[in-house]
């Protein structure tokens, strides 16, 4: 162990840099990804930074996060001939500088909490990794590298290329399979339509509803601007629609069902007033609606709503096409000033239909607003009074895969698909290894692979994340293959 820690060895520098690159990418991704869409700049940023406090679990996570960084830095410094004390001191200083930069950047990242205590935890974790793990791991890593390289040098290049092709075919099929799970093809035909509460009266919502319309197609901004009144909404061929500015309410659409009054809703020229044990519900399930949405693989729900209590923290079901409170095909929910949307897809979890979609600052006051939630099988958009809301969500295969393991949150939608593209491209970086009889054509699957990984999901539905996934995959292959080639060059 002392031989690795104290002797100048260029292999240490190579190992250290090879570990340092993915470690830094991982640290920046985990610490600077936004957690919500709130205003990122706190009222007193430097006070927050100086006196912010982290709980015990958070401190432990900060320590563990920087341990690999300490190992990588220690190897680099040891490779240049620095002694053990110098290594630990250098690791602590560099890690502290990186951590301080991250904490300052977190002041600008929505949903993140910055604290100088985190800098101490990060630097301490790096020093721990450099002092304890670096000398223990180095002989193991070197032995694994030598053994693996000896195996690689005996394998013909054509075998490696064949393995990459098989991997790409499997990855493309998996992308198509997972992308299909984002289509709204599993809506229940047994659900009814409710306004102001669930079918059993729970999670009531106090407010007015002017009109409601459901369509079997996705809207663009021109469509959203054309349905700001009940007459115009009815004229665009909805599956079902209700106009509550008249009494009795006007119904339209081939799949509309009569509504039954529960309690004593208030009918005015502004619409129907609901809430506090007053709501409306269809007399029977909306048979045929689920089938129409499944065939089109898209839908738009439009509603004119006016909340009585814009600051009300308790979630209230404004429009609910479902059953009770936790079974939805599609629901519009007021959560304070935000609009929360839950919809049923093959990949959503049965409880609360996670992930929920949160659109911030929709209800500033009690004035009526026409909200149109549109989904085309990939992209979820919200239009408020005909204008596109600043938040939108693009569902990809990454969210489907991850949501089977643990619930995906709103701020993670889109990010997991990029991570998946990196993961599926990682085996392609093996082209940088010195396979036997290697030829220039080995690079073909490595260069074409990310294009397949990124674009495969677009075969099912238009996927705006495809270009990001392609770039992520290409960068992964380029940097990874260069690092592998550089790392194994002394032994090849």
UniProtKB/TrEMBL annotation:
Q: Does the keyword Zinc-finger apply?
A: no
What sequence ranges are listed for the domain VanZ-like? 32-133
InterPro entries listed in its UniProt record:
VanZ-like
Q: Does the keyword Transmembrane apply?
A: yes
Keywords in alphabetical order: Membrane, Transmembrane, Transmembrane helix
Q: Highest taxon of the source?
A: Bacteria
TM region positions? 12-35, 59-78, 90-109, 115-134, 155-176, 413-433, 440-462, 468-487
The cross-references to NCBIfam families, in alphabetical order and at most eight, read:
vanZ_1
Q: What's the protein here called?
A: VanZ family protein
Annotated organism of origin: Chloroflexus aggregans (strain MD-66 / DSM 9485)
């Amino acid at each position: 162990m002392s031989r690795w820690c104290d002797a100048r060895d260029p292999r240490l520098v190579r190992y250290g840099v090879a570990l340092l690159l993915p470690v830094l990418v991982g640290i920046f991704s985990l610490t600077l990804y936004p957690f919500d869409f709130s205003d990122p700049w706190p009222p007193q940023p430097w006070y927050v930074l100086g006196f912010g406090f982290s709980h015990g679990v958070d401190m432990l996570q900060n320590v563990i996060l920087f341990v690999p960084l300490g190992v990588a830095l220690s190897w680099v410094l040891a490779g240049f001939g620095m002694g053990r004390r110098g290594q630990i001191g250098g690791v602590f200083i560099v890690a502290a500088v990186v951590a301080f930069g991250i904490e300052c950047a977190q002041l600008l990242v929505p949903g993140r909490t910055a604290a100088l205590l985190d800098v101490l935890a990060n630097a301490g974790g790096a020093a721990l990794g450099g002092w304890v793990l670096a000398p223990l791991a180095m002989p193991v890593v070197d032995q694994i590298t030598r053994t693996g390289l000896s195996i690689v040098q005996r394998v013909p290049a054509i075998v490696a290329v064949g393995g990459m092709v098989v991997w790409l075919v499997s990855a493309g099929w998996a992308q198509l399979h997972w992308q299909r799970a984002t289509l709204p093809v599993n809506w229940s035909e047994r659900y009814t339509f409710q306004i102001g509460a669930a079918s059993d009266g729970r999670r009531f919502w106090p407010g007015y509803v002017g009109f409601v319309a459901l369509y079997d197609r996705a809207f663009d901004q021109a469509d959203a601007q054309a349905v700001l009144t009940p007459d115009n909404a009815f004229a665009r061929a909805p599956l079902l629609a209700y106009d509550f500015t008249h009494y009795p309410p006007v119904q339209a659409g081939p799949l509309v069902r009569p509504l039954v009054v529960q309690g004593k809703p208030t009918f005015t020229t502004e619409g129907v007033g609901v809430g506090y044990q007053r709501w409306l519900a269809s007399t029977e399930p909306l048979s045929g609606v689920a089938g129409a949405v499944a065939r089109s693989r898209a839908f738009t729900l439009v509603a004119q709503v006016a909340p009585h209590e814009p600051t009300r923290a308790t979630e209230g079901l404004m429009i609910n096409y479902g059953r009770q409170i936790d079974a939805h095909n599609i629901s519009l929910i007021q959560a304070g000033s935000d609009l929360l949307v839950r919809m049923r897809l093959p990949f959503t979890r049965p409880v609360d239909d996670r992930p929920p979609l949160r659109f911030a600052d929709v209800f500033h006051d009690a004035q009526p607003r026409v909200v149109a939630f549109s989904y085309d099988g990939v992209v979820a958009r919200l239009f408020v009074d005909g204008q596109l809301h600043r938040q939108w969500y693009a569902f990809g295969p990454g969210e489907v895969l991850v949501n089977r393991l643990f619930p995906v949150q709103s701020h993670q939608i889109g990010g997991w698909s990029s991570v998946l593209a990196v993961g599926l491209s990682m085996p392609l970086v093996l082209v940088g290894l010195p396979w036997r009889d290697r030829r220039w054509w080995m690079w073909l699957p490595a260069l074409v692979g990310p294009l397949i990984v990124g674009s495969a999901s677009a075969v099912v539905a238009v996927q705006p994340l495809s270009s990001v996934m392609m770039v992520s995959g290409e960068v992964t292959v380029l940097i990874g293959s260069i690092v592998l080639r550089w790392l194994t060059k002394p032994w090849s």
